[in-house]
């Protein structure tokens, strides 16, 4: 039944396509029809978000603090892992030298499991804590930059301040509208001290 329906549909589409007259291609008008609300005196500017990450002193400072925390946690995990591996190696040598009883071997295996679990818990806990701190920091920085953007626009009579970033919805923004350098200087002078 499905095959019959598919064949009938294909035949109908083929008949319709063959019966159409070939028309000459029309050239469409590509000029956009965008209503102009106000052009006299409208000030639009943008800043490059990636430059903020590199040159906004407060952002750079917070990123360094975050990286230091991440490195500290990583070092703690590496130390725990190394201690665990040393414990395993020591007990393997004792087993090979037949210096451990069956009971001691079982105890060592249980200790390895316990330490493994402890290491895993530490990874999960510290990772979640660091992730939460990072999200909170980014939210705080975003709010700080948003507030600064509003104040900057009010100070310099800018009507629209856009954010240019990879993946943003702006295909092209004329470079004469770029206020990145000035906006970063404003941020560094007025915020995050």
How are the secondary structure elements laid out?
Blueprint: H1 2-19, E1 44-48, H2 49-55, H3 57-96, H4 102-156, E2 160-164, H5 180-190
Parallel strand pairs: 1-2
Helix pairs in contact: 3-4, 4-5
Structure description:
By secondary structure, this protein is mainly alpha-helical. The chain has helices spanning 2-19, 49-55, 57-96, 102-156, 180-190; strands at 44-48, 160-164. α3 (57-96) packs antiparallel against α4 (102-156) and α4 (102-156) packs across α5 (180-190). The longest helix has 55 residues, at 102-156. It is rod-shaped, with a radius of gyration of 32 Å.
Fraction in beta strands = 5-15%
The overall number of domains is: 1
What fraction, in percent, of the residue positions are helical? 55-70%
Major sheet description: 2 strands, parallel
Q: Average pLDDT, to the nearest integer?
A: 82
Strand runs, count: 2
Count of helical stretches: 5
Shape: rod-shaped
Widest sheet: strand ordering? 1-2
Order of helices and strands: HEHHHEH
Radius of gyration of CA atoms, rounded to a whole number: 32 Å
| Helix-strand makeup class | mainly alpha
Low-confidence parts lasting 5 or more residues at pLDDT below 50?
1-20
From the N-terminal CA to the C-terminal CA, the straight-line distance is 75 Å
């Amino acid at each position: 039944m499905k095959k019959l329906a598919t064949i009938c549909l294909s035949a109908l589409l083929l008949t319709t396509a063959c019966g159409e007259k070939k028309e000459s291609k029309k050239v469409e008008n590509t000029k956009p029809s965008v209503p102009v609300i106000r052009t006299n005196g409208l000030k639009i500017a943008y800043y490059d978000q990636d430059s903020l990450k590199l040159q906004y002193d407060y952002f750079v400072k917070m990123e360094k603090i975050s990286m230091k925390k991440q490195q500290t946690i990583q070092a703690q995990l590496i130390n725990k892992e190394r201690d665990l591996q040393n414990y395993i190696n020591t007990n393997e040598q004792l087993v090979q030298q037949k210096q451990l009883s069956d009971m001691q071997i079982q105890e060592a295996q249980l200790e390895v499991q316990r330490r493994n679990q402890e290491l895993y818990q530490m990874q999960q806990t510290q990772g979640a804590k660091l992730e939460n701190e990072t999200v909170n920091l980014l939210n705080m920085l975003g709010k700080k930059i948003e507030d600064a953007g509003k104040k900057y626009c009010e100070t310099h009579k800018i009507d629209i301040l856009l954010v240019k970033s990879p993946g943003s919805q702006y295909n092209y923004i004329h470079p004469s509208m770029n206020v990145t350098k000035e906006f970063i200087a404003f941020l560094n002078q007025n915020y995050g001290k």
